[in-house]
């Protein structure tokens, strides 16, 4: 018995020593890992964003309903998560064709609403500062600070153009934007919103009520909650010159009574385009109309819709103002001032009972259609994704959760059965696949407003892109025709050619009543903020014969499917 007890005691001593050794090794390994992790954090912190911001950002996104919680709960880095993580790698393009290929593509698309959020922290300055700096009106901007004023979004005093920039708004940026459009004052609110106008707000507020720091300029004041920090833009207006952004619209037959048609007028000897444009800009009118020595300011109306121009020679040349005094015809110029009759927008006051999609293939003009719908109806459109660039351009519905039903319709590129059946009805926007593919390729490599380089077009990505996306263009339409409950098919080319009639169809489909003047305002602001800048290359042909044969086969398939459902076929 004693011998057995001695053996047990000896065994326990060995186990005790072994446990002590393992514990020491574990602590040493943990210390080494901690030191290595600290070193990595310091290295990453020197490059920009602290690593410990990642989790709070994701949690905040989940809390406000922009990111779906299930994507945070899954530890497996599937396609839904990989695409959003700083967009480090583009997913390999699938070579298969047909609707089944969309399963993987749809998961990529779901990340479009998250990509901007994942990039957001890295674009900012580090959150840690050496101490809070008292906000002040910096001297970097040009112009006089006019003071803090009350701001009512429903009855704005600065009724001109409106801009948003959630990340980089500065006083100088707002001033320059307003000066370019010939406004005298620039007002900033909520740290990220810019308003323009030629009349100061009537109700002043206490200086301390303008306490929001500009998103892109530490230490500068950009208004507050329902408060405007107003700056003068007169110096920048003078530097821009009197002929800035004045566009010749054409020669038109003058209405019978110009004084009844146009609310402001000026008679001036030796009248010039610059003088008339400057006069109308100060009056905040988008049109400057010249007949001889007479200058008239106003908007496009039913009396003067600007739809049927005449031969420019009837006005004796676009710049020969003095010889245009025939009484029958007049010269029309677009001033830098924005037509504001259709710029007021809001969220629906009550939740929509009908959940409407604005569906299209990427590159088919969805953003442009949203611009038209918002300005025609006066209600924001939503999005299945989140694009910060679009939000900064005034699409406030981007920030609203797509299922909130507070928007008039919801943008989507999805084409899976489940995603389609979530909607009660849909506007299906279809564009020529050749144009759509080129537009999406440009967006992919140069953003919303740029063009892809020759190197991009000549790379291996372009043929791979066509092989994958061409089939997607076809299957997107086919799936919506198959599973969509109530559809309005709109062809991009028809919308561009006959804007007002097609826009009326879309507005009626959305069950909204609009005035003729509002539609004319939309037509006057038809391009919006997302028309690609720079010269487009003429006769540019990136498609090979093999690509054309593939795309043409899809065109015939889609055309046949549309006609089989009693919709108008593809425009020829």
TrEMBL record:
<comment type="similarity">
    <text>Belongs to the WSCD family.</text>
</comment>
<feature type="domain" description="WSC">
    <location>
        <begin position="245"/>
        <end position="342"/>
    </location>
</feature>
<dbReference type="InterPro" id="IPR002889">
    <property type="entry name" value="WSC_carb-bd"/>
</dbReference>
<feature type="domain" description="WSC">
    <location>
        <begin position="142"/>
        <end position="234"/>
    </location>
</feature>
<dbReference type="GO" id="GO:0008146">
    <property type="term" value="F:sulfotransferase activity"/>
</dbReference>
<dbReference type="InterPro" id="IPR051589">
    <property type="entry name" value="Sialate-O-sulfotransferase"/>
</dbReference>
<dbReference type="InterPro" id="IPR000863">
    <property type="entry name" value="Sulfotransferase_dom"/>
</dbReference>
<dbReference type="Pfam" id="PF01822">
    <property type="entry name" value="WSC"/>
</dbReference>
<dbReference type="Pfam" id="PF00685">
    <property type="entry name" value="Sulfotransfer_1"/>
</dbReference>
<keyword id="KW-0677">Repeat</keyword>
<dbReference type="InterPro" id="IPR027417">
    <property type="entry name" value="P-loop_NTPase"/>
</dbReference>
<protein>
    <recommendedName>
        <fullName>WSC domain-containing protein</fullName>
    </recommendedName>
</protein>
């Amino acid at each position: 018995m004693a011998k057995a007890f001695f053996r047990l005691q000896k065994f326990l001593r060995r186990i005790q020593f072994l446990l002590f050794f393992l514990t020491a090794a574990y602590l040493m390994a943990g210390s080494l890992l901690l030191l290595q992790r600290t070193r990595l954090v310091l290295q990453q912190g020197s490059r920009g964003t602290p690593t410990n911001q990642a989790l709070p950002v994701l949690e905040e996104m989940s809390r406000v309903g922009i990111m779906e919680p299930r994507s945070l709960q899954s530890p497996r880095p599937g396609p839904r998560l990989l695409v959003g993580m700083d967009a480090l790698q583009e997913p390999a393009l699938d070579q298969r064709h047909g609707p089944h290929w969309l399963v993987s593509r749809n998961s990529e698309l779901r990340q479009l609403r998250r990509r901007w959020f994942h990039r957001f922290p890295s674009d900012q300055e580090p959150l840690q500062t050496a101490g809070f700096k008292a906000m002040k009106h910096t001297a970097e901007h040009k112009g006089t600070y006019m003071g803090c004023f009350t701001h009512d979004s429903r009855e704005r005093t600065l009724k001109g153009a409106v801009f948003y920039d959630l990340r980089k708004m500065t006083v100088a940026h707002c001033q320059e934007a307003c000066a370019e459009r010939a406004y005298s004052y620039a007002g900033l609110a909520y740290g990220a919103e810019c308003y323009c106008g030629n009349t100061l707000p009537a109700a002043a507020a206490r200086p301390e009520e303008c306490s929001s720091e500009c998103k892109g300029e530490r230490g500068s004041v950009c208004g507050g909650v329902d408060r405007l920090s107003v700056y003068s833009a007169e110096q920048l207006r003078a530097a821009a010159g009197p002929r800035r952004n004045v566009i010749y619209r054409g020669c038109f037959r003058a209405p019978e009574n110009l004084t009844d048609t146009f609310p402001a007028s000026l008679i001036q000897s030796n009248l010039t385009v610059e003088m008339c444009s400057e006069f109308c800009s100060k009056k905040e009118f988008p049109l400057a109309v010249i007949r001889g020595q007479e200058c008239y300011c106003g908007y496009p109306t039913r009396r003067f819709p600007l739809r049927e121009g005449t031969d420019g020679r009837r006005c004796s040349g676009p710049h020969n103002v003095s010889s245009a005094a025939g009484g029958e015809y007049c010269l029309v110029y677009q001033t830098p001032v924005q037509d504001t009759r259709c710029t007021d927008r809001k969220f629906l006051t009550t939740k929509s009972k009908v959940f409407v999609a604005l569906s299209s293939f990427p590159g088919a003009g969805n953003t442009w259609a949203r611009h038209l719908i918002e300005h025609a109806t006066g209600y924001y459109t939503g999005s299945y994704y989140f694009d910060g660039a679009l939000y900064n351009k005034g699409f406030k519905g981007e920030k609203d959760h797509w299922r909130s039903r507070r928007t008039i319709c919801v943008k989507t590129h999805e084409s899976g059965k489940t995603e389609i059946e979530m909607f009660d009805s849909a506007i299906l926007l279809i564009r020529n696949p050749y144009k759509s593919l080129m537009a999406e390729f440009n967006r992919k490599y140069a953003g919303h407003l740029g063009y892809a380089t020759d190197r991009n077009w000549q790379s291996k990505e372009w043929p791979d892109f066509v092989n994958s996306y061409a089939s997607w263009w076809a299957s997107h339409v086919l799936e919506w025709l198959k599973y969509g409950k109530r559809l309005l098919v709109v062809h991009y080319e028809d919308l561009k050619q006959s804007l007002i009639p097609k826009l009326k169809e879309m507005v009626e489909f959305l069950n909204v009543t609009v005035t003729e003047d509002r539609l004319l305002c939309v037509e006057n602001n038809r391009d919006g903020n997302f028309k690609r800048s720079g010269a487009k290359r003429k006769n540019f042909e990136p498609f090979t014969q093999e690509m054309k044969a593939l795309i043409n086969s899809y065109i015939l398939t889609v055309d046949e499917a549309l006609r089989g459902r009693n919709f108008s076929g593809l425009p020829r």
